[in-house]
Every structure is written in structure tokens, then in C-alpha cells.
Amino acid sequence: MKWRCCRRLREADVAFLRESPLDLAGLIAAVTTSERGGVASFLGLVRNHHAGREVLRLEYSAYAPMAERECAAVLAEAHARWPMAQVALEHRIGTLKIGDAAVAVAAAAPHRDEAFAACRYVIEEVKRRVPIWKREHYADGTVGWVDPTAPGGSVPARPEAGQAS
Amino acid sequence: MSVASEVVTVQVLLFARFAELLGTERVALALPRPASLQAVVDRLLAMPGGAGLPPRPLLAVNQAQAPPETLLQDGDEVAVLPPLAGG
């Protein structure tokens, strides 16, 4: 089964999902102009623990076409609320190791208030709306689907046949 | 009356844990008209492995979230979404 990662992304189809390492500096450069003197950014990294369990690595998968549409909608909403701000966003999918950047947001505006507000809005809406899932490999050899609605924050996943966790 | 008027055929996409539970990422369903989104869920719940699905999962039609009472059209792309965990 291919749930470890969605179908291979075609560059032409994606603006926000990435199978390669994220580039926050590139995002900042993309939104910064000489009028926008305030830049706020957020970088979400893969943690080595979740709900008291040691995490070795994780896999992100997505419903890519809907994820792309939701990301575009979130950025459009941010632009409507803070017209002077420009925001850029990328989310990684595939297998990530501890410390890898999973999501990057950069917001630039004439002043810091709009930059912080737009950056915060975008990351919160991404977490709330974009169809992306996380499968964690734990140090005890088990695997779990991250589920913020479940007690303990995850539910057991089936280990992959023929692959050590 | 033609067959086309009596059934609605939709493509159902399953993701992450739900794909694991049902052992597939995609299933075509033919449902009696009128067919609601909840009818898709009810059909999945009755499939092998489907009992592990929540009775009211997050749903999308043609890549936009939709409530369970949404009526489906022929050719709609339905997605059954596990709890989101991006970011």
C-alpha cells in the first residue's frame, strides 16, 4: 500500500507541498520588499517525543489536491485580513527525521503587528484545515497515527511488513 | 427509467489510518438515488475493516469539506478524512 506518502507530487500541480527540504530563507526572500519592514516567520520541526513517547521519525501524507486548495484559501484569507501583508507557506510530506522542518511560514508587512498576526493566522489555519496526516515511528518499535482527538494523542498503526520500525 | 437515474456512482478516497483499516485508498460505490454523503459512510462502515471508522468522520466532496447530508452527483470525488494532523 502507498499510504506512506501520497502519489508522487508533480511539480506543476503543487505550490505548497514539498517532498524536499523546506527553505525558510527562500520564503522570507519571496515575501520581503522594500516597503515591508516587518518579517515574522514560523518553522515547525519534527520533535523527538510525542505524548511521553520517544519518536524516531515520521511520515507525512496528504490529500494533495485538497491540501493545495486549502493552503491557497488560507493565504487568500490572510491577504484579505491584512492587505499590506504578504505570506508564503510550504508543508513537507514524505519521511522526515527528527529536527527536519515540516512546515514553514513567512509573513512580511510594513510593520510587525500585521506580520505577526498574518503568520499566526496562517499556521493555525493550516493545522486546523489542511488534510495532512502524520504516522510516527516510536523507539519501542511501534507505529502510530497522530490523532489530536484521541486520548494519548495517537492511535496504533499497522507496522509495515518487512521493514523494521 | 434508465439505470443512470436510479444510482449515483462516486469515487471514494481513503487516507492514512482509514486507508489502513479498509485496506484500500480508493473504492467506487454505486448508491441508490438520492445518495447522501452519510450513505457513503454507512456503506464503508459495513465493509471489512470498516467497523473501525468513526460514525461521523470529516468528509469532503470534490476537495471541499461538506456536511454528511450533502447530496451526491454522479462522478463526485468523495474523501473520508481521518483527524487532521498537519503542521
What does the average pLDDT of chain A come to?
Answer: 91
CATH fold description of chain A:
Aldehyde Oxidoreductase, domain 3
SSE ordering of chain B: HEHEHEEE
Beta strand % of chain B: 25-35%
Number of helices of chain A: 3
The CATH homology group name of chain A: Molybdopterin biosynthesis MoaE subunit
What's the topology here?
The complex is a heterodimer of chains A (165) and B (87).
Chain A: E1 17-18, H1 24-31, E2 38-45, E3 49-50, E4 53-62, H2 64-81, E5 86-92, E6 94-97, E7 101-109, H3 112-129, E8 132-138, E9 143-146, E10 154-156
Parallel strand pairs in A: 1-5
Antiparallel strand pairs in A: 2-7, 3-4, 4-6, 4-8, 5-7, 8-9, 9-10
Chain B: H1 3-6, E1 7-14, H2 16-22, E2 26-32, H3 37-45, E3 58-61, E4 64-65, E5 77-81
Parallel strand pairs in B: 1-5
Antiparallel strand pairs in B: 1-2, 3-4, 3-5
Task: Describe this structure as you would to a colleague.
The complex is a heterodimer of chains A (165) and B (87). Chain A is α+β, with helices and mostly antiparallel strands and 165 residues long. Helix content of chain A is 27%, strand content 34%. Chain A has one domain: Aldehyde Oxidoreductase, domain 3. In chain A, helix 2 runs antiparallel to helix 3. The longest helix of chain B has 9 residues. The mean pLDDT of chain B is 95. Chain B has 87 residues and is of the alpha+beta class. In chain B, a hairpin with a 2-residue loop joins strand 3 and strand 4. At the A-B interface, strand 4, helix 2, helix 3 and strand 8 of A face helix 2 and strand 4 of B.
